[in-house]
Amino acid sequence: MDIKAVIFDMDGVIIDSEPLYRKIQDSVFAGLGFSVQDAEYDTFIGLGLKIMWEKLIASRQLIQSNDTLIELNNRQIYEFFRNEEYLEPMPGFVAFMDYCMMKNLKIAVASSTAKRVIEIILKKIGVLDKFPIIVSGEEVKTGKPAPDIFLEAAGRMKLSPVNCLVIEDSENGVKAAKSAQMFCVGLQNPHSGNQDLSTADMIVKKFDEIKLGHLL
To answer: What is the CATH number of domain 5-16+87-215?
Structure first.
């Protein structure tokens, strides 16, 4: 292996935000007159709002457009995190990020979340200035599990996909990373629901289990 960059998903990897998103989404769903059970919600994790709302428009016969629902949803997500006073990174993330930088690896964030939400979360946990490359789901044509977002990140870093390692906590994210021909670490986060990470190249429960030595 010749890994030259590490690409981090954000939700469930950099920050344990899935329980917070569930709270936000339940509020959005209730406002539209329906609810989503755990098994269905787990399939949305890592997808991005566009595909999630396409599925919900079809299954719930919603009359609003996809764009309208995405804007409504993004507004509520942004306001929640803008007003959230206490956010902290996942245990071990900062030490692992610092290790990557010490090894002269490029680092990037590639998340289905809206760009302004990514930036406010990274700012609140004190790492925004560490990431010159941030790719959001808004900036690519097709969201996860398509590989677009990871290929865009690699392109911005001027690297071949085979030189990139991705850290993901969702089945959709792992599929996207592998479709991009990247080495993928599946991070098991119990708050991310029932995610099948079996196609990842390595599965870990915490950051300090990721051994980069033989991959560099």
So the answer is: 3.40.50.1000
